[in-house]
Amino acid sequence: MHNFPNARLNRLFHPSGNCLNVAIDHGVFNERSFLAGLEDMTRVVAELVDAGPDALQMNYGQAELLQSIAGKSKPALVMRLDAGNPYSAHLPTVPFDILVRADDPVLPAVQIDAACVVCNLLLFPGDPDLHRQTVANVGKARAECDRYGMPLMVEPLVMKFDEARGAIQADGNKNLIVPLVRQARELGANVIKADPTDDPADYHEVIQAARCPVLVRGGGREPVETVFRKAYALLRQGAHGLVYGRNIYQHPHPAGIVKAFLGMLHGGLNDEQALALYRKHEQAG
Questions:
Q1: Which of 76, 77, 118, 159 is most buried, by the most CB atoms less than 10 A from its CB?
Q2: Rounded to the nearest 10 degrees, what angle do helices 271-284 and 254-266 cross at?
Q3: Is 210 within the bounds of a domain?
Q4: For the chain, how many structural domains are there in total?
Q5: Residues 103-124: what's their mean pLDDT?
Q6: What average pLDDT does range 84-90 have in this prediction?
Q7: What is the CATH number for 123?
Q8: pLDDT of residue 2
Q9: DSSP readout, 212-269?
Q10: Hey, CA dihedral for 52, 20, 67, 29, is it positive or negative?
Q11: CA atoms within 13 A on the CB side of 146
């Protein structure tokens, strides 16, 4: 049994101390490829609620689909506060990331009973202004979270432009990730959503820098065997959970993926056992 000093964090995290947060907040970044599988948000939310993850990460304009569901047995809400263009398929002329509601960014999350809010802390080498914007966003969000007693999840993301693919992607360089995670903690993060390092065996350095619960960001779609193998390796390094989006909602059997992850996070399954549980759900459904 794991208890947090903040009541909202006790709703976000399972008693195991771990959390599976399914991210379906991709629309706010205005990137078409992210929306495959999210066209019918009413259906997506209903299916995910039935699957039973610990949390859903959503935007202000979609959150009522979750919070209007009656009863206690539903995932906690993690509400995103910011929007930007860093996930564009092509390098944007002017990268930006701004708080959606600059005057009182956390109030809507309080009004709709979110368990946590999240915003980015971005590092794009060669663009210090984007980093400056997100430092200011985190500072503003932290002040408002203190006002309302709301936990703050910060997403430190190191980005690079892949010349071969012609697209922006995450950079798994631990020498960039670790100091950015440390900065997120210095700015007041209660929870950190961080990218995996290129070598999962290095992830304990991210955990040490965070000094608060770390949830591993999933990123782009991969084969299910790879997803479970990487997730298990990162959890063994001390991560407290996963924030996966496309590897769940773009999958033909998202409920099976959720159940397998929950078995890994709360039931002590390793990657091979999680894969076997997934196959069982796949065959049944």
A1: 118
A2: 150
A3: yes
A4: 1
A5: 96
A6: 81
A7: 3.20.20.70
A8: 66
A9: S-EEEE--S---HHHHHHHHHHHHHTT--EEEESHHHHTSS-HHHHHHHHHHHHHS--
A10: negative
A11: 8
8 A C-beta contact, residue 265 and residue 235: yes
Residue 233 in any domain: the answer is yes
Nearest to 137 by CA among 108, 99, 95, 174: 99
Beta strands 76-80 and 116-123 are parallel
Residues 154 and 194 sit within 8 Å (Cβ to Cβ): no
How confident is the model over 217-228, as pLDDT tens digits? Answer: 987 788 899 999
Residue 246, in any domain of the structure: yes
Token look-up 């629309």 returns 27
* In-domain check, residue 278: no
- At 207, the amino acid letter reads I
| H or E segment to which residue 175 belongs | helix 174-186
The range of the structural domain enclosing residue 75 comes to 7-254
Q: Report angle CA 57, 61, 62 to the nearest 5 degrees.
A: 50
What are phi and psi for residue 247, nearest 5 degrees?
-75, 0
Query: How many alpha carbons lie under 13 Å from residue 52 in its C-beta half-sphere?
Result: 11
Residue 117: closest CA among 136, 87, 140, 133: 140
**Distance between CA atoms of residues 118 and 192, nearest Å:** 9
Residues 189 and 183: their CA atoms lie apart, in Å, by 9
Task: State both tokens at 199.
Answer: 């070598």
**How far, CA to CA in Å, does 182 sit from each of 57, 132, 173, 211?**
23, 16, 14, 8
In the predicted model, what is the mean pLDDT of residues 49-75? Answer: 95
